[in-house]
Design a protein that fits this description.
two-stranded antiparallel ribbon; 13 strands; alpha/beta
Length: 265
């Protein structure tokens, strides 16, 4: 007999009244954009500013080392080049973000930030098994929420990790819930959050993803709605007033100020 789906309220991860997420580890003007996803950025968000939630993507090297890193390649933010999944850890470990900070493994992030909750986006299929092992090794099931653009990757992760780890819906499920009003009554994807942009480009047009129907669906199914990536304070304020449950931002100073003013920090 299949276990019943768990709702957001069943997870400690979602127990905050509002989730302010530090994007790509938590860089701002004080830490420097060039140091995104470095351990220095993570620590700045959590230790200096008091962030409880941080966001990162994960990639696995060719030999299975799991990195808390945004890009598929080293080229943009480090002093080395190459696709992460085509390199061994011994080749990647010498790379420096912004020329000075090493790329952190997810193990290092979990160890360095024992009180933080981490939103994790799986970027490639080869990261699924290393992620499951890392979460179990640290007993971090209640500290993480896992996302992916790919429904296949999400389904594979859920099968491997089991129901103790919270997950967010793929873009396909978000589209159902945003634009097909009756379908959410009959479909329960077993996810606990919608993590979406306000709008998404589809071909030559941009469509609104964050709709009133999505918010209604989330409330009816005890799910959370987190919106990315919002750097304009006026837009942050508008989204809070609309009733979203969390915002992902690079402007972590502005986001904290707004949350503090609204007693959401």
């Amino acid at each position: 007999m299949r276990a019943p789906n768990r709702n957001a309220s069943d997870y400690a991860y979602f127990d905050a009244p509002f989730s302010a997420f530090a994007h790509r580890g938590g860089w701002d003007e004080n830490i420097g954009e060039e140091l995104e996803n470095s351990l220095a950025a993570f620590r700045h968000a959590v230790d200096d500013l008091g962030y409880r939630y941080v966001e990162t993507d994960v990639h696995a090297t060719r030999d299975g080392q799991l990195l808390a890193f945004h890009d598929m390649r080293l080229d943009r933010v480090t002093d080395r080049t190459g696709a992460v999944d085509e390199l061994d850890w011994s080749q990647v470990r010498g790379a420096r973000i912004g020329g000075r900070e090493p790329i952190p493994t997810l193990d290092e992030v979990l160890e360095a930030l024992p009180g933080a909750r981490i939103n994790i986006d799986i970027k490639e299929a080869n990261a699924i098994e290393p992620l499951v092992r890392t979460i179990r090794r640290h007993g971090a099931q209640e500290r993480v929420c896992v996302a992916s653009f790919s429904p296949r990757r999400l389904a594979a992760f859920r099968r491997a990790a089991g129901p103790r780890v919270a997950t967010s819906a793929s873009l396909g499920a978000v589209a159902w819930s945003s634009f097909v009003p009756l379908l959410p009554r009959f479909v329960n994807a077993g996810v606990q959050a919608f993590q979406v942009p306000v709008r998404q480009k589809l071909g030559p047009v941009r469509i609104r993803v964050l709709t009133r129907n999505l918010l209604r669906t989330a409330r009816a199914r005890d799910m959370r709605v987190h919106v990315w990536t919002i750097d304009d304070p006026e837009q942050m304020r508008s989204l809070m007033e609309a009733g979203v449950d969390g915002i992902v931002s690079n402007r972590i100073d502005e986001l904290k100020a707004l949350c503090t003013a609204r007693d959401l920090w």
